[in-house]
Q: What sequence folds into this?
């Protein structure tokens, strides 16, 4: 992890939405590092700020949202302060993103070739024929049969899995250094999910591409990622290597997440759900955001916990880490 | 596709038939043309003879039956006033109206889409809000009043544009067109804008709503994630998507544009079908009124069909569904 300069370093990132009802701190002091060729899993429940983190890196936060603080160092360049044109040049060429819902990411009224050729030509001044050939090769690489023919098709002529492959192929067109995958397999059935996970992992290993893999599903992370960041209410509450975090979660929230994964439970026993719901990020009260749902909460938790490391290389935000280990 | 086409044709014939009854009965009830057409000094015998010549002595159902039989042969009757076939009379006037309606539609599209997209991209800016305020005015001001104001300002006060007639026309493939001469264009400007105003407002609203919706879609975000320049995203990704409803609505509107050209043609003395129909109503020239209304209905049917076909060209999803159906 430390042998080469990291691809992405996010430091104290804050992205807030200035809505009429008040400020939503969707991302609040988030830091992580993705090494070259590494896969970082970003886990958390719905609404915890995972997508907004991804969009912040891409410079695609929609109004009324704005990156209000922190640094996003991509190969040493701070994207948080770069001009729109500088970021545009990186988008799609050096940093790509794949979205959650493959049914929505492709423009329904444009043919696949139009949508892929324009992606090639946005960054390389090549003629249509060359761009087309590159698009075709990319489609072939992600396992789309008869790519020449499929290029002529419209998105609605593809299944969900195939559309996601088209999106992945588009993301791969410029051999990016970093791909942000925002739950790209959630909408797909399990077999296809497995295939895509396998292929992405292979790709990453072969080409040295780094991935940020966003998901709410810990079991996906378990087989895929090298490191994991657990996110809750806009903050990272626990981080570490996948093996360490999953084998020995220190944060009560991580423990709860692991408890709700089916495969890790004894058959027949009901799944352990985390009680309660993700709090509204609008006007979040001071103190640990997990307080209302945490079995270990006490008066100390009325203050927002800072990052501490009860064990080496195991940063968490909690006053009462689960040091005894899971039962 | 063929089945679909045949089904549409049968619907069309049915609609035409029902409309013909309504029109016939409606026109019959608005007054007796004899009172207007025949010299009041004429004696009884002369009046009776005139009534017989015009076929007005027969009962309504028989008049209608004769009309149907003739209509099936493509004869919609002779004008009482001009004594030439009503169809011929209308077709003579049609190019002027068509030219006006098409120019107005183009004006509406060419001005409305950029204005509407701008308002959709910058909904909170002063320019965006002014565009919307303008479109509300365009919707609510009566056409004839706007027409009179245009004449007041540009013809009477500034003296820039002529206020009546088609101006000089030039023959193109057997059709006289104003747009081919500079004088004709000058005559065209005010009436075309007057007729375009409603459509312009409509296109602005459609383009704005479509743009606002499209820019929130994932495919626009994905297009940005690909690193496309915003010009391409707006000009291709957003534009193509908002065109679907605009073409549909405008196509359907083309019929009413032609039908409602009546007001504009009257205000600007534009010698089209609209002016003809107003004159015919004043003279109770029944065959012309009936023929005009039938032609308008027929036009609506054809336009609807063409719009559906256009729609399937623009929206690939429709194309597939039809090919299967
Ligand atoms: N356009 C917006 N306006 C206001 N608030 C927003 C906006 N977009 C996101 N948010 C806020 O940011 C928070 C985080 O959203 P985000 O989409 O990052 O969640 P997520 O972790 O990706 O959840 P999911 O698993 O459902 O995708 C949400 O709770 C939401 O309140
Ligand atoms: S800080 Fe307190 S409330 Fe928050 S997770 Fe830890 S024990 Fe629970
Ligand atoms: Mg999300």
A:
């Amino acid at each position: 992890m430390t042998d080469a300069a990291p691809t992405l370093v996010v430091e104290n990132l804050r992205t807030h939405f200035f809505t009429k009802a008040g400020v939503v701190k969707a991302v609040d002091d988030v830091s992580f590092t993705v090494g070259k060729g590494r896969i970082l899993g970003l886990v958390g429940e719905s609404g915890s700020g995972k997508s907004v983190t991804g969009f912040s890196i891409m410079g695609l936060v929609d109004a009324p949202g704005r990156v209000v603080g922190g640094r996003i160092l991509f190969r040493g360049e701070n994207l948080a302060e770069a001009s729109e044109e500088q970021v545009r040049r990186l988008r799609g060429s050096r940093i790509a993103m794949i979205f959650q819902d493959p049914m929505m990411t492709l423009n329904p009224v444009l043919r696949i070739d139009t949508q892929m050729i324009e992606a090639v030509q946005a960054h390389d001044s090549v003629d249509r024929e060359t761009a087309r050939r590159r698009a075709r090769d990319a489609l072939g690489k992600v396992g789309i049969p008869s790519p020449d023919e499929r290029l002529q098709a419209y998105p609605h002529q593809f299944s969900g899995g195939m559309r996601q492959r088209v999106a992945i192929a588009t993301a791969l067109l410029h051999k990016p250094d970093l791909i942000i995958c925002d739950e790209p397999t959630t909408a797909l059935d399990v077999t296809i999910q497995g295939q895509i996970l396998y292929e992405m992992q292979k790709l990453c290993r072969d080409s040295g591409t780094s991935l940020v893999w966003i998901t709410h599903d810990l079991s996906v992370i378990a087989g895929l990622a090298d490191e994991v960041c657990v996110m809750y209410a806009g903050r990272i509450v626990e981080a570490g290597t996948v093996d360490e975090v999953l084998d020995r979660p220190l944060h009560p929230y991580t423990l709860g997440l692991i408890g709700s994964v089916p495969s890790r439970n004894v058959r027949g026993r009901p799944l352990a759900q985390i009680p309660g719901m993700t709090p509204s990020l609008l006007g979040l009260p001071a103190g640990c955001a997990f307080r209302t749902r945490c079995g270990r909460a006490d008066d100390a938790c009325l203050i927002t916990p800072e990052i501490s490391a009860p064990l080496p290389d195991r940063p968490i935000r909690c006053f009462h880490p689960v040091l005894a280990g899971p039962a | 596709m063929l089945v679909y086409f045949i089904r549409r044709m049968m619907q069309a014939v049915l609609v035409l038939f029902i409309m013909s009854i309504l029109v016939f009965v409606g026109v019959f009830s608005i007054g007796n043309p004899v009172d207007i057409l025949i010299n009041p000094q004429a004696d009884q015998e002369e009046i009776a003879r005139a009534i017989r010549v015009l076929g007005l002595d027969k009962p309504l159902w028989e008049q209608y039956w004769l009309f149907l039989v003739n209509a099936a042969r493509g004869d919609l009757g002779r004008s009482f006033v001009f004594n030439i076939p009503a169809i011929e009379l209308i077709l003579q006037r049609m190019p002027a109206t068509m030219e006006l309606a098409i120019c107005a539609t183009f004006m509406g599209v060419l001005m409305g889409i950029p204005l509407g997209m701008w308002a959709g991209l910058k909904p909170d800016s002063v320019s965006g809000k002014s565009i919307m305020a303008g479109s509300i005015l365009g919707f609510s001001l009566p056409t004839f009043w706007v027409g009179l104001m245009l004449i007041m300002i540009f013809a009477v006060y500034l003296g820039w544009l002529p206020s009546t007639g088609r101006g000089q026309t030039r023959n193109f493939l057997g059709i006289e067109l104003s747009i081919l001469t500079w004088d004709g264009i000058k005559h065209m400007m005010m009436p075309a804008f007057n007729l375009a105003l409603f459509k312009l407002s409509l296109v602005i609203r459609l383009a704005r709503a479509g743009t606002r919706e499209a820019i929130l879609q994932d495919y626009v975000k994905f297009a940005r994630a690909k690193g496309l320049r915003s010009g391409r995203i707006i000009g291709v990704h957003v534009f193509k998507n908002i065109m679907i409803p605009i073409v549909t609505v405008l196509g359907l509107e083309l019929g009413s544009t032609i039908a409602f050209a009546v007001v504009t043609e009257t205000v600007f003395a534009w010698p089209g079908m609209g002016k003809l129909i107003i004159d015919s109503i004043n003279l109770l020239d029944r065959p012309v009124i009936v023929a005009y209304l039938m032609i308008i209905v027929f036009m609506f049917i054809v336009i609807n069909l063409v719009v559906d076909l256009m729609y399937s060209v623009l929206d690939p999803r429709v194309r597939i569904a039809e090919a299967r159906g």
